[in-house]
C-alpha cells in the first residue's frame, strides 16, 4: 500500500501563492496516477489536477492557468503550485493516488488512496 502525507497548507491573502507537497512512501508503484482533490465547507469534493506518471497532466477549469502540478520522482514527492489564489480556493486539499490498473485518470476524486489533507485558507 502507498502512503501519502500532505504539507504546505496555510493562510494567504487573495492574489498570493502557496505550494503544497505530498510525500509518497510505501508501494510507490501503486501511485501511477496521482492528483489533488479539494473540499470546501458545505461543498462537494472537486478534482483539481491529476497526472499520469508525472508526465501527462490535466486541470479543472477553475484552476487552469493558476495551478501547476509537478512530480519529483527522485524525491517521491508530488507538488501543487498555486498562484493568484482567491477566496473560492479555500478548502482542504487532499493528495490522491491510484495504481496503473485504473482505466481512467480523471476525475481524481475517484482515486483509491488519500492523504489526510491540508487546509488552505485564502482571505480577501
Topology:
Blueprint: E1 2-7, E2 10-13, E3 18-26, E4 33-39, E5 46-52, E6 56-59, E7 67-72, E8 77-82, E9 91-98, E10 113-114, E11 118-123
Parallel strand pairs: 2-11
Antiparallel strand pairs: 1-3, 3-8, 4-5, 4-9, 5-6, 7-8, 9-10, 9-11
What descriptors fit this protein?
124 residues, seven-stranded mixed beta sheet
Protein described:
This protein has 124 residues and is mainly β. The protein is 0% helix and 52% strand. A hairpin with a 3-residue loop joins strand 5 (46-52) and strand 6 (56-59). The protein is globular and about 40 Å long. The mean pLDDT is 95.
Short structural description:
The protein has 124 residues and is mainly beta.
Binned strand content: over 45%
Number of helices: 0
Q: How many β-strand stretches?
A: 11
Major sheet, described briefly? 7 strands, mixed
Separation of the first and last Cα atoms: 40 Å
Helicity, as a percent range: under 10%
Low-confidence stretches: none
- Overall form: globular
Give the helices and strands as they follow along the chain.
EEEEEEEEEEE
Mean pLDDT: 95
User: Which class of secondary structure composition applies to the elements?
Assistant: mainly beta
Radius of gyration: 13 Å
